[in-house]
Amino acid sequence: MLSLWPIDPVPDQADPWHSDPMTSDVATICSELISLDTSNYGDGTGPGEASAAEYVEAFLRGAGLQPERFQTTSATRQAVVCRIPGQDPQAPGLVIHAHLDVVPAIAADWSVPAFEGTIHDGMVWGRGAVDMKDMDAMILTVVQQWQSHGIKPRRDIVLLFLPDEEAGGRHGAHWVVENRPELLEGVTEGIGEVGGFSVELANHKRLYMIETAQKGLAWLRLKASGTAAHGSLIHDDNAVTRLARTISRIGEHRFPIQLTPPVQEFLEAACDAAGVPFDPSDPEAVIGQLGPAARMIGATMRHTANPTMLSAGYKSNVIPGEAQAMVDARFLPGLEEDFFAQFDALLEPGVTYEPQEKDISLQTTFDGDLVAGMTAALRAEDPHAIPVPYTLSGGTDAKALSLLGIRCYGFAPLQLPADLDFTSLFHGIDERVPVSSLEFGVRVLDRFLRDA
Hints:
The chain is α+β, with helices and mostly antiparallel strands. Helices cover about 25% and strands about 25% of the residues. The strands form 5 sheets. A 6-stranded mixed sheet has the order 1-2-6-3-7-18. Strands 8, 9, 16 and 17 form a 4-stranded mixed sheet that branches. The chain is globular, with a radius of gyration of 23 Å.
């Protein structure tokens, strides 16, 4: 087990662990987690998360804690839970949820090995560096700091490391909610991935994006029916062309802008920081201030539906009687029925669909003690931080945990270089995270979680 304390702490400082030498090993932990291939192909053929679960369990035991490692739906789908007792046993608990799986990587596309956890140019490289083995590593680092210094948080904190987030969580978070809800007994709030990272505006002010909402998810399998026939005939009832027309219409369609409360709140805050007026009739005007983050924010202003897979036929001279496609649809919080009414209008006659995976949207408010704590921790490490609420265009395990009444936020804090296209690295090529960002995240999480 790594020792994260190569030098003696300064005894007369209130926060002796808040210095780079004492957080630097977070990069090594992140690298070691990346080197464990936990690719999730979504069909059960991947290696599973057992290797990473074993690593996390061993790390926590080495720190003097008593974690539980357990399998969910199979021996390869494993999770780890560990409850850290707080000073106030009557206070409601806080869960930190993190996933251990990653999306696959095609080696030929990468300039570095995807599963070696290479550290160079001040970055940790590899699949999972930002989604989300970086947060896994920051959590482990903070916990070992606490154990080494006898630090006890204000309230119980439940660490929950999960499998299968990248494929909808049916083998992970949803399984825990349905089969092991007692692990989260007394927990009322939670934090997880895709929030707390910085975005630098054109005027160099830094926003820190705290996730308060998520779009809903619907992975839809479309089926077009027709009449099977010989490929040499004139044929007007062709399932392939019927599906192609539908898919083309879906792919080219732009749903109208619909500003939900958290999106409008974000846009107003961004405009204020940028020093430009917010125009509700032209909300996209502020997007240009956001740099690479504009793609993700733009997707939270409207429903989206993108064709992702096509399948039809079995021989070149046979017109098939059926053709299929997959569509990744994301609907705005509170507007699921509105989305499907618009989506249905895009279908050709003879095209039907059924959800292959469907999950709820989320929405909470940007207020309360937890948000105040996030804000204070960020500003303690970056006095120029401007925390703002935002909506995630994708989804996380927070969807499942919210079914237990847990109020969830995305808060995995990172201060990022202005020129790093961070949002493109999620599921992207040459995924990487700056070492300095990891160290910043450890310091912020430590400050926040002790008093959360």
